[in-house]
Amino acid sequence: MFCAAAIHLDDDLACQTVDEVKAQLPATHGEPKYTSLSQTGRGRDALVAAFDSLVSESIVAFIAHKRFMVVTKMVDVLVEPLAYETGFNLYDRDAALALANLYHLSGPVLGDPGAYDQMLQTFVDAVRRRSRASAADLFAAISAYRATTRPPLTEWVELLELTRGQADDIIRRIASGETRDELDPAIPCLAVVCGEMGKIVGDFALVHDESSAVARGSVFLQYLHWLPDPARPGRTMERLPVTGVTFSDSTTAPQLQIADWVAGAVRQWATSLVISKADPFAERLEPFAKRWSAGGIWPDSNFFTTGRTPIGRPDAPDTRPTP
């Protein structure tokens, strides 16, 4: 799981909250990062007490199910460009999301799960700039997986086999440095967090901990509204309320320390939803995580029964419920 989190908090209260957590820890504990705090009873109690003290503050989190995000990226960079070339807008009426859910939910069931895993891993390797995996490796993995599938999934995996030209293009652009961070969830998750925070506080300047990916994506966050909206041809994306992006650390911006705790807590809770092992601390975190969460890049097992337009029916009426 990946989680991006943001908090809008007065400096004095942020310092007080961090100091109160430190006061409950041994002097030898070191910097109170979420990972270390969550591993001891005293640290867990300190986290819960801190979260209780922040119930009225503006906190937003957004999660990404990494395995499902890999599938959505396969649809985005392989299938969507092919669909576009044929005049089909895969972003209209949630068709891209429907296809990603189809692959994710039925992939390990209507085909060999090991071959499915290998296909996803080879895709990840192929779009990593420093990987030696090639488009040929990727399509060998896709074909090997397709050979294990059963209808009706088989024809949708065959669709992936038609995207060799799109794969060659994206791998070339990644190798040349033209495209970067294709699989990094930081910017898409942060964009949602910023949008949701803006609904609460209005325009704001974002302070983030040091991150090369966010530094590269800072222009995107500030000028998203200059880009065309793929789901609405002829229109641009909605503006994010980010007036600037600067970088700091928890020694000068204690809010970053608290944001780390929030992100860790929501990530642990989200992880508990998809593993069979009981996690008592995740149960304690659930009320906070539910309050803070603005959703996520997450598979939806009910997707095909919620009234969304079926795949391949761009002319079907929009029967989605009104928000």
Give an account of the 3D structure.
With 323 residues, the chain is mainly α. It folds into two domains: 2-61 and 183-296, no CATH class; 66-175, no CATH class. It is 52% helix and 10% strand. It contains 13 helices and five strands. It has helices at residues 11-23, 34-37, 41-53, 66-85, 95-106, 113-126, 135-146, 153-161, 164-175, 186-201, 212-222, 254-272, 280-292; strands at residues 2-8, 58-64, 204-209, 242-248, 293-297. The strands form two sheets. It has a three-stranded mixed beta sheet with strand order 1-2-5, with helices on both faces. Strand 3, helix 11 (212-222) and strand 4 form a beta-alpha-beta unit. Helix 3 packs parallel to helix 13 and helix 4 packs across helix 9 (164-175). The protein starts with a strand and ends in a 26-residue tail after the last strand.
How are the SSEs placed, and which strands pair?
Layout lengths: L1 E7 L2 H13 L10 H4 L3 H13 L4 E7 L1 H20 L9 H12 L6 H14 L8 H12 L6 H9 L2 H12 L10 H16 L2 E6 L2 H11 L19 E7 L5 H19 L7 H13 E5 L26
Parallel strand pairs: 2-5, 3-4
Antiparallel strand pairs: 1-2
Helix pairs in contact: 1-3, 1-12, 3-13, 4-5, 4-9, 6-7, 7-8, 10-11, 12-13
How would you classify the quaternary structure? single chain
Query: Beta-strand level of the residues, as a percent range?
Result: 5-15%
Number of helical runs? Answer: 13
- Taking the alpha carbons of the first and last residues, their distance comes to 27 Å
Low-pLDDT regions: 307-323
Instruction: Indicate the mean pLDDT.
Output: 89
What's the helix-strand series? EHHHEHHHHHHHEHEHHE
Major beta-sheet overview? 3 strands, mixed
State the domain count.
Answer: 2
The tally of strands reads 5
Principal-axis shape: globular
Class by alpha and beta content: mainly alpha
Strand order of the largest sheet: 1-2-5
Estimated helix fraction: 40-55%
Rg over CA atoms: 21 Å
Protein name: DUF3800 domain-containing protein
Region (Disordered): 304-323
